[in-house]
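seq as requested:
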Amino acid sequence: MKALVYDNYTTDDDFSKILKIKDIPEPIPKPNEVVFKVKYASLNYDDIWGMRGKPLAVPLPHISGTDAAGEVIAVGEDVKNIKIGDRVVSHGNMSCRVCKLCTSGREYDCKKRKIWGFETGPLWGGYCEVTHLPEVNVVKIPDNVTYESAAAASMTLLTSWHMLVGRAKIQPGQLVLVMGGSSGVGNYGIQIAKLFGCTVIATASPDKLNQLLELGADYAVDHRKEDWHKEIRDIAKKIIKPFGDSPGIDVIFEHIGGSHWNKELTLLKYGATIVTTGATTGYDAKTDLRHIFFKGINILGSTQGTRSELEHALYWMSQGKIRSIIDSVYTFEQAVEAHTKMLTGKGLFGKILMKP
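struct tokens:
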């Protein structure tokens, strides 16, 4: 079968030097495994980290791809709930399932956790014609959700759902700030907040602001401006006037980090929450602790989520309340172009998919 493989890391982000299409053996299922024909797979930034070999030296030779959706073509003898012909999507959080953290519902904190298609291998990920996963790491796709939408949603929708619902526990009527709303997680963050009856301010570069509003954001702000946070503060003041509430943001959905972090803290009202995953502009952020202890701010970290949360989020997608925003679809032969677009972010809005 055909697979997108690299045998070496890149030191200059020239993906053309390492990405190759190769023929590898088709997988045979272990007793607890499901084998499925990949219809679509979705790009994530950990694909870039993998090719760099930083911050983690991933196994070589390597097949990336954490988010893959397809049709089941074989099952192991111990598989109970998945059958040949089922439409499934990957749940890429691979945990031991038996430790105290896993059995208490915190499988994303498992000490033995690995991200499928990033930390697994050699030659075990979603960028191939046929792939395999343990039964517990696949989820059935609802009938009225497409393979494309499911592949785009697998990690990104799960991450956004866990951030806002699992960790921040958003409530109707809250004012939610979604940083980087044009990204995959940002797209879903806007929609989840609106699903829960929140007022949403979203940020992006100036050329993408109208798209945020079309997606459901109530306000859109250019976060590349030096004083972007002042514009958001003014919006928050106008919103609370009719209700006599104190000004400020209730929940900030954060995955940018870097120089934006401390400005975000200034926007939170007393007792508010900021939930963060990743740090695309830098992890070494400056923090003015006065914003935290004076206002009793909650700072929550978040990574991925549970299989149950993915099923819950896909249910709402099946009800038409959440949709995947697909930026573009590439073939394996166009993989260099696809990954370069994700790296630069130029003109990118939503998820990039690859089709074998």
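The CA atoms of residues 212 and 220 lie 6 Å apart.
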